[in-house]
């Protein structure tokens, strides 16, 4: 039964796979965004990366650090989603609910990055995006725990 749930014939697993792939791509983009900010501000963390002898190693550019914090926040929230989303799929949830939970997490994380690291928008935009994704992940975790009792 469990193996049947982990096939692309299952709309819940198919949605989980799709949105997980989107989030992996999003995290790759964060690495590129960090590099873009480093080149734009000429802020490099390693001596071998300096493009000119006039430049110095620098760790405190606010634009670079903002992107790095957003990336770290992704690692702290998206990686747990990969685990809990897969376990939630194994609980055989209602497709409509599960698909929308996966969407909420992914869209919440994308919006979080946009309003935090790309086009800085004042609070509560970032908090709302964060808590939408976190709430959906917590709901899935609670369902996994309850089914596993």
Automatic annotation (TrEMBL):
The keyword Acetylation applies. It comes from the Eukaryota. InterPro entries: MAPEG-like_dom_sf (IPR023352), Membr-assoc_MAPEG (IPR001129), MGST1-like (IPR040162). It catalyses: RX + glutathione = an S-substituted glutathione + a halide anion + H(+). One of its GO terms (molecular function) is glutathione transferase activity. It is found in: Endoplasmic reticulum membrane; Mitochondrion outer membrane. The chain crosses the membrane at residues 16-36, 78-95, 101-121, 128-148. The keyword Endoplasmic reticulum applies. Belongs to the MAPEG family. This is Microsomal glutathione S-transferase 1.
């Amino acid at each position: 039964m469990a193996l049947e749930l982990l096939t692309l014939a299952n709309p819940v697993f198919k949605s989980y796979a799709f949105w997980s792939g989107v989030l992996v791509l999003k995290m790759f983009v964060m690495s590129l965004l960090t590099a873009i900010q480093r080149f734009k501000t000429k802020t490099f963390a390693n001596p071998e990366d300096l493009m000119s002898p006039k430049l110095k190693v620098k760790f405190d550019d606010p634009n670079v650090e903002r992107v790095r914090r957003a990336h770290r926040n992704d690692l702290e929230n998206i990686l747990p989603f990969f685990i809990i989303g897969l376990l939630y799929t194994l609980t055989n949830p209602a497709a409509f609910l599960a698909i929308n939970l996966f969407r909420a997490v992914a869209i919440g994380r994308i919006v979080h990055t946009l309003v935090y690291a790309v086009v800085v928008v004042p609070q509560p935009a970032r908090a709302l995006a964060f808590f939408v994704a976190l709430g959906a992940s917590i709901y899935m975790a609670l369902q996994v725990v309850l089914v596993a009792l």
